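It would be a great kindness if you could assist me with a short task in structural biology. I am sending you one protein, given as its amino acid sequence and as whole-number tokens for its backbone shapes. I would ask you to consider whether the tokens describe a fold that such a sequence might reasonably adopt. The full record is reproduced below for your convenience.
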Amino acid sequence: MQTASFLTGQFLLAMPGIGDPRFDRAVIAMCTHDEDGALGIGIGTVIDGLSFHDMLTQLDIAPGDTPDVPVHLGGPCEPRRGFVLHSLDWGGADTIEVAGRWAMSGTVDVLRAIASGSGPSRWLPALGYAGWGEGQLDGEMRRHGWFNVEGDDALLFSTPADERWAKGFAGAGIDPRMLAVGAGTA
């Protein structure tokens, strides 16, 4: 059973001064978070020089009329492994529904369905993921690292990657320019 302390279906926004340059201005769509750990897909950065058509071509899938969108840097773990975050109107054998908000698929079936025009209506491709072991993300949430906001379809599917971080904070009523780089102690 999911409790309010778990972040599945929410977005993590990197706080200024997170301390890891790989996550500077990161936006992570949290796909699973429980007592055993967490997994999320980065949606705030695209991979320069790699498009969706390039990825399909490398897998011998004809792109057809599929839009040639950027591929996102999903995270530092397994950077050659692909994922698609997508709307709930399509599902494959490996599809995981994320808190009733979106789905995540990680097999070539979703790519073939998108290329053939029979896939989900909204989708976002990524390579790699962000992963945390048991209790690791919980510790980072207690320190100056991440800010969580509710999952929002518009932020995921309609906002350009380079605008997601600022819009995520703005949706929570926060101007990220006003955030401190470090956290204090009491």
Q: What stands out?
A: Residues 10-178 form a domain with the VC0467-like fold (CATH 3.40.1740.10). The helical segments are 52-58, 108-116, 136-142, 153-158, 161-171. Strands lie at 10-14, 27-34, 37-42, 46-51, 70-73, 77-86, 96-98, 102-105, 123-132, 146-150.
